[in-house]
Design a protein that fits this description.
two-stranded parallel sheet, 13 helices, 11 strands, seven-stranded parallel sheet, single chain, about 280 residues, globular
C-alpha cells in the first residue's frame, strides 16, 4: 500500500474527482483537491502549478482531457511527479477510446504508460462507459430531461451505463491498495439499455412525461449548434452517440467486480436515488 503520503486528485471539482476526494477523506487519507480554482491550484496549461500540487505526494488521480496537448502534458507531468516523490498514477480514460476511437484516441494512455515505465512509477488505467450521472450532472443530457424532450441520434443502440460512485470506489481502491500496477480496468454497469429506455426510467421515477425522440446525426449536430455548442464539440459528441447507435458499446465489462469484489450499481438504483433529490423536478 502507498504509505500515508498525500494523494493528489486532479480535476477535483469534476463528476468523478469530487467523489474520489470524498471517499479518500472518509478513509482518513490526506487529499490535495487540485483544480484551476480549487483548494490546490493546478492547471495543465501552467506547469508551474504542478510541483506545489504533487510535492511529497504518494499517488495522483488524473483525468484524460483528450486535448491535443494531453499526451505531452502527461509525459512532462510524470517526470515532475516522479522527481517529487509520486510513485503511483491512476488515469481516468474511456472505454470508447479503445473500442471505437482507434490508436490516436489512446495517445494519453500510452503517454501515461510511458511516463510510468520511464520514471519508475506504478500506473493504472480506468476505462468507464457512459456515466449514469450525465443525465443529472451534465447539461448535455440534463437540460433535455428537464425540458421534457430528449432528442438523440442513438437509435436503439444499447449502453451499459456506469455509476460515477462505482468509478470513484474503484479509483479510491487502486490509489491506496497494492496489486493494480500495470492494469487496465474497463468499468461498466451490470445491464445494457437504450437511451430511450433510460429516459423512460427517469420519467417514471420522477413522475414526469418524458419523450425520447430519435434524430439523425445531421439533425443532432445542428441541434447542438443551436444550443451554443462549438461545431467541433458538436461533431465529436455526435460521433460518440453514433458509436452507440452502431452497437459498438453493447457489451458488459467486469472491472468493478475485479477491483471491488461486488457487482456494479444498476441504472435503476441511480435513477431512484437521483429522483428523490428533486434533480429532475421542474
Amino acid at each position: 500500500m502507498v504509505a500515508a503520503e498525500p494523494i493528489v486528485v486532479v480535476g477535483a471539482s469534476g463528476k468523478t474527482g469530487r467523489r474520489v476526494v470524498a471517499r479518500l477523506r472518509r478513509q482518513g487519507r490526506e487529499v490535495r483537491a487540485a483544480s484551476r480554482r480549487g483548494e490546490v491550484r493546478f492547471d495543465w496549461a501552467d506547469p508551474g502549478t504542478w510541483s506545489q500540487a504533487v510535492r511529497g505526494a504518494g499517488a495522483a488521480y488524473l483525468v484524460d482531457s483528450q486535448g491535443g496537448d494531453a499526451p505531452a502534458q502527461l509525459r512532462a507531468f510524470g517526470e515532475t511527479a516522479s522527481a517529487l516523490g509520486v510513485r503511483r498514477l491512476v488515469l481516468l480514460s474511456s472505454r470508447d477510446w479503445s473500442t471505437s476511437g482507434g490508436e490516436a484516441a489512446l495517445a494519453s494512455e500510452r503517454a501515461l504508460q510511458e511516463a510510468g515505465t520511464t520514471w519508475g512509477m506504478e500506473w493504472t488505467i480506468l476505462r468507464p462507459t457512459w456515466f449514469a450521472q450525465n443525465f443529472s450532472e451534465d447539461a448535455l443530457l440534463r437540460d433535455p430531461v428537464l425540458s421534457g424532450e430528449v432528442r438523440l441520434p442513438t437509435g436503439d443502440g444499447l449502453e451499459p451505463f456506469v455509476d460515477a460512485d462505482d468509478i470513484a470506489d474503484v479509483a479510491a481502491a487502486v490509489l491506496t491498495r497494492d496489486g493494480h500496477a500495470g492494469r487496465i480496468y474497463e468499468l461498466s454497469g451490470p445491464r445494457l439499455l437504450s437511451f430511450g429506455a433510460a429516459v423512460g426510467e427517469i420519467g417514471r421515477a420522477s413522475g414526469r412525461e418524458l419523450a425520447y425522440v430519435p434524430v439523425s446525426a445531421e439533425e443532432y449536430t445542428a441541434h447542438l449548434s443551436g444550443r451554443g455548442f462549438d461545431r467541433d464539440d458538436a461533431e465529436l459528441i455526435t460521433t460518440l452517440f453514433g458509436w452507440i447507435r452502431a452497437g459498438r458499446n453493447e457489451r458488459l465489462s467486469d472491472g468493478v467486480q475485479r477491483v471491488l469484489g461486488r457487482e456494479p450499481r444498476d441504472f435503476s438504483g441511480y435513477v431512484t436515488a437521483t429522483a428523490a433529490t428533486g434533480a429532475w423536478t421542474v
